[in-house]
Amino acid sequence: MSAMLIAEQTLNGLQLGTMLFLMAAGLTLVFGIMNLINLAHGSLYMLGAYFAATLFRLTGSFLLAGAGAFVGVLALGMLLELAVLRRFYARDHLDQVLATFGLILFFNEMARIVWGPQAVFMPLPEALEGTVTLIPGAPYPLYRLVTIGVGMAVAVALYLLISRTRAGMLIRAGASNRTMVEALGVNIRVLYTAVFGLGAALAALAGTMAGPLLSVQVGMGDSVLILTLVVIVIGGIGSIRGAFIAALMVGLSDTFGRMLLPAAVSEMTIYILMAAILYWRPQGLFSAHD
């Protein structure tokens, strides 16, 4: 195996990992803080991709399309929390699973009605169509490098938000002791709505970045949701740092597994990794407070 091939596959693994982190960060916040199992998170990823593809076709600007999808799904997520999910915080997790699975069916049918059953293709932004030669003789697509950069930037921004701001302090406190936070005069309902909206917007950002790489189609979030749940379990529920490290581990192991192992075995690589991590640390790599 050549060094160029290893470098290229490493970048592919990092690109997949940062995409998974954008999904996992929002979902682990919602689960860790609100104790809500949201299986419809993949649907928000799908809607972000559809919104971005539609806006890109209308405006011709990838930045405007991404911003519109981010804001649109942010608002949709907050509305979804206010109208539906707020009623399930005190309910059993099975009720949450059933309710959010119903939302998957609803959003898939809505997307089929609005955009049709055929896949929608989102072209690469013209400015990001080229390649960059990081290693002599191994040009790498510029857009994939930008995707890695976006994921890294979001990771840093979330770290600063959670650990260095008053809002982050309230988020961490709400995850630890909701009753005490309410006793101190914080409107925990507003906090929960904001956190859910942020998680939805991050899923939309992941969908926007995936749009030019994949076909935008009904149900595209379902398979990504499975990988996202694996990331959260490995990293530790509620931990942003754990989600970031686990996403990179899953991205790299999946990429190199598909390259080095037979097809039947490569499909199981990430699940073998998850089983090994949980055998060593049943709670995941980090706790919600790390």
Question: Nutshell version of this structure?
Answer:
The chain is mostly helical and 290 residues long. It is built from 12 helices and 2 strands. It has helices spanning 3-34, 41-59, 62-83, 93-115, 142-164, 166-176, 178-183, 188-210, 220-235, 240-260, 263-266, 269-280; strands at residues 131-135, 138-141.
Please describe what this structure looks like.
The chain has helices at about 5-35, 40-60, 60-85, 95-115, 140-165, 165-175, 180-185, 190-210, 220-235, 240-260, 265, 270-280, and strands at about 130-135, 140. The chain has about 290 residues and is mainly alpha-helical. It has one domain (about 5-280): ABC transporter involved in vitamin B12 uptake, BtuC. A two-stranded antiparallel sheet has the order 1-2. Strand 1 and strand 2 form a beta hairpin. Helix 1 runs antiparallel to helix 8, helix 2 (about 40-60) runs parallel beside helix 4 (about 95-115) and helix 9 (about 220-235) runs parallel beside helix 12.
Tell me what portion of residues adopts beta-strand conformation.
under 5%
State the share of residues found in helices, binned by percent.
over 70%
CA-based shape: globular
Named CATH topology: ABC transporter involved in vitamin B12 uptake, BtuC
Strand order of the largest sheet: 1-2
Which CATH class applies here? Mainly Alpha
Name the poorly predicted regions.
none
Count of runs of 4 or more consecutive helical residues: 12
Q: In total, how many domains does the architecture comprise? A: 1
